[in-house]
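Write out the 3D structure for:
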Amino acid sequence: MSSYADRLAALRDQLKRDRLDGFVVPLTDEHMSEYVGSYAQRLEWLTGFKGSAGSAVVLPEQAAIFTDGRYTLQVRSQVSESEWSYQSVPETSAAEWLREHAPQGARIGYDPWLHTTDWVKQAKEQLAAKGAELVAVGTNPIDRVWADRPAPSKARLMVQRDELAGQSSADKRQQMADWLSENGADAAVLAALDSIAWTFNLRGADVSHTPVALAYAIVNRDGTAELFVDPDKVGDEVKAHLGNGVRLHERTAFEGYLQGLEGKRVAVDPERSVAAIGQALDEAGAVIWRVRDPAVLPKAIKNQAEISGHRAAQARDGAAIVRFLKWVEAEAPSGKLDELIASDKLQAIRAAGGMLKDLSFDTISGSGPNGAIVHYKASAETNRAITMNSLYLVDSGGQYEDGTTDITRTLAIGEPTDEMRDRFTRVLQGHIGIATALFPKGTRGSQLDSFARRALWDAGVDYAHGTGHGVGAFLSVHEGPQRISPAGSSQSGGDEPLQAGMILSNEPGYYKTGEYGIRIENLVLVIVKQVAGAEKAMLGFETLTFAPIERRLIVKEMLSAKEIAWVDSYHRDVLAKIRPQLDSDELSWLEAACAAL
């Protein structure tokens, strides 16, 4: 395999042949996905960075990689400092860096299938200050030099049954059609893979850990739709499920179809659609209505069938977590456990239930200092033993046909220090702050974020990630538009009003570089709350995740009476939900783990 330095040199040679002075490399695909198929992992191929968010810029003499606070440690361990400068988002961006570093009059290339129209506009403005120009490429220059680049997945589409989806695809499309008619539009472009999966009640296996298929779709104002997908992926069951209201096209025919929409008013999501889509519609003479993809909000607000499915998936997953925690407690003192053995064991326990479709993301199995790397992924090179008198952080999830799970637990291996227990208890107080929050309808996630940080701020510490992200229904483990994060953070979405039916994570943490990491994560459902004497409609959270929280790390004296009551009540719920799935030995262990404080 060529070295990363060789790959960077090969790209620079290709840029010379293409008469370009630079190129921008985002970590995404033609659908603006967060998690992408192996064929689209251009940033990792070029730099070695294995995180799920980032970008890079290559100039003739300089190169920079851009990541947010979740990846500060990871990028430095994976990407060569001699070849790349590390840039922190949101303090800077690729476009801003180019304004400072691009040569006067430079031609900077970009792939219009990997950036939004808004990004292109902003980058052009930044480069104009240097007399430089942004140039759309017909073929991505990385693809020209990536000799063994994988082909896109050929995995078959699968039907998500209506009883799990809670609504037929025809009904969903009709609601979109009504919305188009009310707003005088002719069609809506769906480019986000999870929006397409949700709208058509289909699932796929084209992106690791996310059950989506590579496709584009257009929903028309009469409720019919065009679905652009590789025909090899479509079997008879899928054709029968889609019916006559959905016309199938080759995925490669999408751009040409857009060019035939002359005079049509077309809804295009500026955040979830790439610039090439807007350019094709502009060239066709269509009128672009910039508006959010009509699947985004209804997909986020789960219906009763999706909520019921999620509860079933969580109970099943909770039993797997209990078996894993019991196993770690028994095996860790032997000194034979390491991060990879533990994560493999957790996957095997989940799979043994017979209903696991996939993990929902690569398990974060972090021992000691590796637990302080927020989005750590153990490898043969980084694998650490799980040693005594340390902390072990495990963040994991499963994809089940009825729901998507995501849970983090931090375990004391041996005897924790007083500082570890103090920090853990503060993280727990933040977790309880979110779990018990009451807030008026219309409240945004950014308004709740500090509830999770106050106890940490009291000690002069914090964490560099959002507190919560949305979660899909057998879809993406990171789902918008809702999240709980500081206003103006690089992880956008905190300004979306929370609505009953949305599912989010509740995951405050603390990370001491070089020593240990702590995170406590459950999923929560936004629900309507009845508050005596309330003058506004109120909302709150129902906790959906059930597995014990490490009692040996809790400093009871730091907790208020209400916080102690919450922990004890939560552990009673864990016992009630998980008990029926356990044998007597497992149940005895769980009863001890859930004993009252």
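Residues 575 and 591 are 7 Å apart (CA to CA).
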